[in-house]
Design a protein that fits this description.
Length: 829
């Protein structure tokens, strides 16, 4: 400072009047700020950097503007309080910075930018970096606006942006910004004290902002009423608890019956959440009205992907278009009233991809709540540890489960369970390869007006479609136009409500799988009607490929007419059709009318795939590899998977038909394979090959192992075509021996020999042309390539065919090298 400036500062201090920022006449010198800003003031890059050495307040009615390229160094434990307005207006090329001049700084070097503005106040940070504070921005007012745009908020002890000591919050907008290395949360809306919930949070929007290593949460809003709040775009990574939290409940207590808490017009959209220690998106407590969680990408989280808990009611809300992978549960919804009459809830879960989660893909549980206008549509629920979807509520009403792909889950595909199940529709779903039932609908009381239509249930380990209840419903249950194949059992219906099943294909439900049976019914059963006291109508269905097509225990009438049972002669029925060659009909209790029956199917028949297995050798030395192939297996719809069993050990299913195994122990080893098509229908029997490991064997035989159709004892038989002895013979004159000759005259040997002869012929002609002073028609390099191809064929053949071709290939290479060397000497003499 010059001497005049020092005198002015001294006079102002002695007079007790706050001093304005002192500046230096030298443009390169810093500016020290020691007093409040009481009028409109501009800090510029030319007068910076600025050093704020003590607490500074921007007074009400005043605006502090910080121009592009300006750096503000804040001193230790200093707070910059804004009661008027602060506009930090940087640019991408020339940002503003609120930082510290301390060497090797860390979080907590200074306090915070604290907003205490009025209705006309604005705190705006654009293209601004705020770093090394206790908190980046403290919002201690419910009025005005806080805008953080294209800013970097990093390295703070507590939070990036936080409300403190308020009952309501002002308009808060955070867009296109970056929060990193923060102790508790990126953006936090809460009140201080033992009950941290503010009364109301409205108009909070966080868009296209990245939160990385921001303590417990990326964004957290704790308020009794959350209205008009949106978190859209951006990402949350590496936080200890949940990524995005919207919480209206009381801390550590169950929700009360009061309706003073809730969320409305709230959205979490398009956020990427990865690697967090809790839920991806967490919504807790109160009444939910018009809440949307959609289009988010959530992966590798320790909690649920989307978790809605302690909700008292849900209306017009939607969880849609999310991808959740590697979470504990994909989507979890818990709705619970403490007491009182049943209350409707309406929720849509649509177009989500919930895959590879430890527990359920979708889990919905409620108490004292009626599921009305509840829809689960268009989702992919795959490879989850338990159910694809599990929904438990006291009463189902107007519920739709449609157009979902539910596959390869560790328990059942979809489970709907409650006291009363009314007017539920399951339509056009695919339930494939689940390790339980495909669809399981269970009611402890009545079942009424349920319709299961247009579904595919393939390759499930228990029942394709199971409907079970214990009280009579007013409207019949309908099962129509489904294709149910390749499961352990096809359809199971148990309960007193009348049922109509028509136009279904129930075929080849003979899968071996999960232990246990249905009501002491043996495997290979198509349809089971169990403990049915009302009338059963079963018409125009195709039932085939089972031992028992239909088994019934009914006190009412079972009308099973006009069905196709797998044979023109109809089903086997001990009294009504004893000459029938089709699937058996067994009325364990009551009667089943099966005449008239249809002699031809109503729809195209499904076919079992055929299986074949071949091995490139059947007698080998210990440790020699054997290649097995089921490529000759066939199915009109295509073989989907191959199930190999090696010496009694089931290998994981594979999509390719080949298997290579090496056997170390002497004796006979067995490899079996069953093939499965896209409908989960397995081949009728396994094909098998036996391989003998002989310690005296040094060369494999050239036999090709194939399988023939079943021999009647449950196994496919084996045929071996052998072109060489299975044991070594003494070497014959000429040193070739049967092994070498057998290899040379195999397919691989002859093919290599043909190419080798071509190389010799072309090489001989070219050599003759060179020796006579003429230019050969081809280059020597091309001739060497032909010879190399021949040697390569022999070497490949030694792996896939006769092992003796290894010696043939080595000999061919040696002869070619010797001939080439001799010709080179001859040509250069």
């Amino acid at each position: 400072m010059n001497r005049l400036a020092l005198v002015l500062v001294a006079v102002v201090v002695l007079a007790g009047v706050p001093a304005p920022a002192a500046t230096a006449t030298d443009a390169s010198a810093p500016t020290y700020v020691t007093g409040d800003v009481n009028e409109d003031t501009t800090w510029s890059a030319d007068d910076g950097p600025y050093f704020v050495t003590d607490d500074v307040t921007v007074a009400r009615g005043a605006t502090l503007t910080v121009e592009p390229g300006t750096t503000v160094n804040v001193g230790g434990e200093v707070t910059l309080t804004v009661r008027g307005s602060l506009h930090a207006a940087g640019t991408a090329a020339s940002p503003v910075a609120f930082t510290t001049a301390k060497p090797n700084p860390g979080p907590g070097t200074w306090d915070a930018i604290r907003y205490e503005g009025g209705a006309d106040s604005t705190l705006r940070l654009a293209n601004t970096t705020v770093e090394y504070g206790v908190t980046g921005v403290e919002v201690a007012s419910s009025q005005g606006r806080v805008v953080v745009d294209d800013a970097t908020i990093r390295a703070h002890v507590r939070t990036g942006v936080e409300t403190v000591g308020v009952d309501a919050v002002p308009s808060i907008r955070v867009t296109d910004s970056r929060f990193a290395d923060i102790g508790y949360a990126g953006v936090l809306v809460r009140a201080a004290g033992t009950n941290p919930y503010v009364e109301s949070a409205r108009g909070v929007a966080v868009r296209d902002t990245a939160f990385e290593r921001t303590g417990r949460h990326g964004v957290a809003v704790w308020a009794r009423q959350i209205r008009g709040v949106a978190v859209a775009g951006g990402s949350v990574t590496g936080v200890a608890e949940s990524g995005v939290v919207l919480d209206t409940s009381r801390a550590a207590t169950q929700p009360s019956a009061a309706t003073d808490r809730g969320l409305s017009n709230v959205a979490v959209r398009g956020v990427s959440v990865t690697g967090v220690g809790g839920d991806g998106v967490h919504v807790t407590g109160g009444e939910l009205d018009d809440v949307a969680v959609s289009g988010n990408q959530i992966r590798d989280v320790d909690g649920a992907g989307v978790n809605v808990s302690r909700a008292l009611d849900v209306d017009d809300s939607r969880i849609a278009g999310n991808v959740v992978e590697n979470a504990r549960t994909g989507v979890s919804v818990a709705v619970s009233k403490p007491s009182g009459a049943l209350q409707d809830f309406s929720l849509t879960v649509a177009d989500n991809e919930l895959r590879g989660n430890d527990r359920d893909g979708l889990r919905v549980t409620t108490a004292y709540v009626l599921a009305d206008e509840f829809a689960v549509t268009g989702n992919e629920l795959a490879d989850n540890g338990r159910h694809g979807a599990y929904v438990a509520t006291p009463v189902f009403d107007e519920t739709v489960v449609a157009d979902n792909v539910v596959r390869e889950n560790g328990a059942s595909g979809v489970v709907l369970t409650g006291s009363r199940v009314r007017d539920v529709t399951a339509a056009d779903n695919r339930f494939v390869a689940n390790d339980g039932d495909g669809l399981d609908v269970w009611a402890s009381g009545e079942m009424s007006g349920v319709r299961v239509t247009g579904n595919d249930a393939f390759d499930n380990a228990h029942v394709g479609v199971s409907l079970d209840h214990h009280a009579t419903g007013a409207r019949a249950v309908t099962v129509d136009n489904n294709t149910i194949a390749g499961n352990r059992y096809g359809v199971r219906y148990a309960g007193p409500t009348a049922v109509s099943a028509s136009n279904n294909t129930v075929a080849f439900n003979t899968r071996s799988g999960r232990d246990g049976s249905v009501a002491d019914v043996g495997p290979s059963t198509g349809v089971v009607f169990e403990d049915v006291s009302a009338n059963v109508t079963f018409r125009d269905n195709d039932v085939y490929g089972h031992v028992v097509g239909l088994r019934s225990e009914s006190d009412g009438s079972v009308v099973a007419e006009d069905n196709y049972w797998g044979a023109e002669s109809g089903p086997f029925h001990a009294t009504l059709n004893p000459d029938g060659d089709g699937n058996a009909v067994e009325p364990a209790r009551g009667k089943a009318a099966v005449v008239p029956f249809d002699e031809s199917p109503h729809r195209d028949l499904l076919e079992r795939p055929t299986v074949a297995l071949a091995a490139n050798r059947t007698t080998v030395a210990p440790g020699n590899a054997v290649a097995f192939s089921a490529a000759e297996s066939s199915d009109d719809a295509g073989v989907e998977s191959y199930h190999f069993v090696v010496d009694g050990t089931q290998l994981p299913a594979r999509e390719t038909p080949t298997l290579v195994e090496a056997f170390e122990t002497n004796g006979t080893h067995e490899v079996r394979v069953v093939v499965e098509d896209a409908q989960g229908v397995e081949s009728a029997r396994a094909a098998r090959v036996e391989v003998t490991v002989d310690p005296n064997r040094t060369e494999s035989d050239t036999g090709d192992e194939t399988t023939t159709p079943d021999d009647g004892d449950g196994n496919a038989t084996t045929t071996t075509t052998t072109t060489a002895p299975t044991t070594q013979a003494p070497a014959q004159s000429g040193g070739g021996g049967p092994g070498l000759l057998g290899g040379l005259f195999s397919v691989w040997g002859l093919l290599g020999l043909l190419v080798y002869v071509v190389a010799l012929a072309v090489g001989g002609y070219a050599t003759n042309e060179v020796l006579n002073g003429r230019r050969p028609p081809v280059k020597g390099r091309f001739i060497h390539v032909i010879a190399g191809v021949a040697v390569g064929i022999w070497l490949l053949g030694s792996v896939l065919g006769p092992g003796s071709l290894l010696l043939v290939g080595a000999g061919g290479a040696g002869v070619w090298a010797a001939a080439t060397g001799a010709l080179f000497v001859l040509a250069t003499r």
